[in-house]
């Protein structure tokens, strides 16, 4: 049962036990047996009363609906004279809030008459709490006969038996400070700060004017606004009035702590010392919403908590936050403990070390500049993410800082969608970069060899439509190997057409099958929000466009155009898999989790191979050699950028047309070509040719990585 503890208006499930024989039920509950009817010759002293069960049902049903007026209407007149409707509702709400109850399930067990004007109903109730675990009780509804109707002789013991009439409930929470996020070198990316909530305990106020003046000065609220917040609130409750910075609370601590009625509660807030750097990776925390609270409530989260909303903060929330606990006790009015109802220890949070190399991350962000796009850097042997840059970025502090709501709203309204991580969530056609996949399909599925010959006059018109090569004068006679080196479109138009025809005969979409084997068309598995991209096929086209797949669709796909959509991280992962000999890894940002108390050993996060590329070692070696020639003069499309580079680089350029705008510029590479260590993919939105824009960016990144110059 879900329970809105602020209004108590959601339904809680009520189960009613089968009535059965009243005497058996009463015996089961210890209420005693119904006395047998007196002999006919002896008149009864009191007329037989109606059953008390409908009253018990009505009370519990009203409770399940959060209908306090209906519950109050069933109270005996003596009870109503002792408590107002408002105080009655507040008693329930206060107990539920203090115990962090978010779900409850009452089950009526038995009802019975215990005297001429007395009756009782026993019910079982299960309370699910956020901090104290599950609580089970069997309260009793005492009833009295009033004008022929059964009414409830209510006390707080109806909620929790040990409360009796005057006792109170108190939760002593146990919390766990949120863990720190570090890069691989130990530099702090996210840590804990603090904020202080100022409030009042109405029953402790001695000088109301003094309290209001002090809070008005610190919070910028009028005395009237402050008074309105605690008026008619229970005397022993902490009533929050407003928040101040931790530093302010420290500087005024003596005055605040010595003013009767003023109380302070410190609360941790998240701090991001790097500001915009790596913001999409580290993410941010913000107030929990209703959906998150429903999912995380059993881990001790409350309405006032904050949770990870993006990035690593979201991905490893359970590790960073730990789990709250608490001791729930019943106290006398004098503060003496009567009984401990529950005692749940907290689960210690852990700090997380990432695979990210912040100096390299800063270099990638500097090279990307304020150009829409993304840069990804992976360790080719493990899939560990070394850098992941995206523009535009954001300052996480603006999204988590409670004291600056307007600034938080302004970030969300900025153009360019700064909260979108273009490295993992941006989807684009990748142009000629896809020819790596098409060459693999040609060799594995299409019957082509490395020396298969083609003729490129600068166009291809086999389908009756002239499709141009990027080199308008044509490449002339050219083989498959040089087709990749020189990125000849005509070669791959022909490859795509052949794969289509063979696929029709085999009843298989050959190029799409190989593309999926390279990890395209599905999330990579990195610990961040990401898009799946799209490897389009006949089923997708029929579903989305109502049209069948055509030969031209495969021809377009073979050069990385048409409906194909990829993310920069997917292309970086393809490149890393080619570089390492064909093992496709799940990219990961997690290196280690450490118990901040030092009582538990560190948790090491491993790496994972999620499959092998669908290419034989021989064919993969051919692709690698061709990619190495891409950066080699005089014919390689990136030779102008890398011809004099001191380390041999293997790569592929891409210039992806879209929507009649400037093309997206791509370059993906790994280095050194003969002993690969690192894979880099750069993509710039609507920036022009990959060889002119993206390739120089990758060169600059490799210079930083290998510490050249």
What topology does this entry show?
Elements: E1 15-16, H1 22-29, H2 53-64, H3 68-73, H4 77-82, H5 85-99, E2 101-115, E3 118-129, E4 134-137, E5 140-146, E6 149-152, E7 168-174, E8 181-182, E9 188-200, H6 208-219, H7 223-230, E10 239-245, H8 246-251, H9 253-257, E11 262-271, H10 279-282, E12 284-287, H11 290-296, E13 306-310, H12 311-315, H13 317-321, E14 325-331, E15 337-344, E16 350-354, H14 358-368, E17 373-379, E18 385-391, H15 396-400, H16 405-412, H17 435-444, E19 453-456, E20 459-460, E21 467-468, E22 476-479, H18 480-485, H19 489-506, H20 510-517, H21 538-545, H22 551-558, H23 568-579, E23 583-585, E24 590-595, E25 603-604, E26 609-612, H24 617-630, H25 639-642, E27 650-656, E28 664-671, E29 678-684, H26 690-705
Parallel strand pairs: 1-2, 8-16
Antiparallel strand pairs: 2-3, 3-4, 3-5, 5-6, 7-14, 8-9, 9-10, 9-11, 12-13, 14-15, 16-24, 17-18, 17-29, 19-22, 20-21, 23-26, 24-25, 27-28, 28-29
Structure description:
The protein has 709 residues and is an alpha+beta fold. 32% of the residues lie in helices and 25% in strands. It is built from 26 helices and 29 strands. Strands 8, 9, 10, 11, 16, 24 and 25 form a 7-stranded mixed sheet that branches. Strands 1, 2, 3, 4, 5 and 6 form a 6-stranded mixed sheet that branches. Strands 18-17-29-28-27 form a 5-stranded antiparallel sheet, with helices on both faces. A hairpin with a 6-residue loop joins β20 and β21. α6 (208-219) crosses α7, α17 (435-444) packs across α20 (510-517) and α17 (435-444) packs antiparallel against α24 (617-630). The protein is elongated, with a radius of gyration of 35 Å. Mean pLDDT is 89; it is low at 1-48.
